[in-house]
């Protein structure tokens, strides 16, 4: 049978084709590393059964680009928010433009937004202000939230607790924190997004015993590409850019941690994502 892959960019050992369609809830496809070959990237994802991708919008310009991609490619959807790194740019004008993006049919979540006290590219005060303003936008629009948190678990939890009754659903994407933080989020009835961080023997293996603590109907999967290329891929890629076609490898790793089949995990996480983002798969 002819390979469904459009090119030989992925070595054969990296051409996983699971039996069920997957949803990548965090793909930074507006990153300039995808400028040259985005058609091929999307086709490889579809060949790998990654049929739905939520394109992360991290500021106005990238959210607008994400919307354009969602218009161009079936199966792509967009989020619109201001990343905590860029929180210093938040203004009433940004809030107004975000609100109009949130009204578009291609936009399925508010975010990426949240708190990142790891690098503090914006001050914690600026981050909290932009975050709360976006919680207000989520409350107004009824859209779910796509959240980023790094080294800010306790503060994030306090803020979310205060807003919990006003917002609908929220996913903490690329969860990498500890057990207490995880249980705090689950207590608030949040969803958790896991990436290839779990594949990193230097810094991700603490997550492995935690995976089983996340109820399957609260778990979603993502590449966070082009970042976070899994460190244990069975073959070398040209370059270090991660892409949605490699999501099935992450699903395989997670399924192994959970002691269930790839198909069961793929099906559960895809169903959760469709319900969470209210995605009509027929669009
Ligand atoms: Zn993030």
TrEMBL record:
Keyword list (alphabetical) reads: Hydrolase, Metal-binding, Nuclease
Q: Which GO terms describe its molecular function?
A: hydrolase activity
Keyword Transport (UniProt): no
Which InterPro entries would you find in this protein's record?
A: DNase_TatD-rel_CS, Metal_Hydrolase, TatD-like, TatD-type_Hydrolase
> Would I find Metal-binding among this entry's keywords?
yes
Give the CDD domains listed for this entry: TatD_DNAse
Query: Superkingdom, according to UniProt?
Result: Bacteria
Quote the protein name from its UniProt record: TatD family hydrolase
| Origin species | Vreelandella gomseomensis
């Amino acid at each position: 049978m002819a390979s469904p892959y459009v090119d030989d960019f992925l070595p054969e050992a990296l051409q996983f084709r699971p039996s069920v369609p997957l949803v990548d809830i965090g793909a930074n496809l507006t990153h300039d590393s995808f400028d040259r070959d985005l058609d091929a990237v999307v086709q490889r994802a579809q060949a790998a059964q990654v049929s739905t991708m939520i394109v992360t919008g991290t500021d106005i310009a990238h959210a607008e680009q994400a919307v354009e991609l969602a218009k161009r490619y079936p199966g792509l959807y967009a989020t619109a928010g201001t990343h905590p790194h860029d929180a210093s740019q938040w203004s009433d004008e940004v809030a107004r433009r975000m609100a109009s993006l949130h009204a578009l049919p291609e936009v399925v979540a508010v975010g990426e937004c949240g708190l990142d006290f790891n690098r503090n590219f914006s001050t914690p005060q600026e981050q909290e202000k932009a975050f709360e303003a976006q919680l207000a936008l989520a409350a107004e629009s009824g859209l779910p939230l796509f959240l980023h948190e790094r080294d800010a678990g306790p503060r994030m939890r306090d803020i979310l607790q205060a807003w919990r009754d006003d917002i609908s659903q929220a996913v903490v994407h690329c969860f990498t924190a500890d057990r207490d933080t995880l249980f705090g989020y689950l207590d608030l009835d949040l969803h958790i997004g896991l990436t290839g961080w779990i594949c990193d023997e230097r810094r991700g293996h603490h997550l492995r015993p935690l995976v089983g603590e996340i109820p399957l109907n609260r778990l979603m999967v993502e590449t966070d590409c082009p970042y976070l290329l899994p460190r244990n891929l069975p073959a070398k890629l040209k370059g270090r850019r991660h892409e949605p076609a490699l999501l099935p490898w992450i699903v395989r790793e997670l399924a192994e941690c959970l002691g269930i089949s790839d198909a069961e995990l793929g099906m559960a996480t895809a169903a959760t994502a469709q319900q969470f983002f209210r995605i009509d798969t027929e669009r």
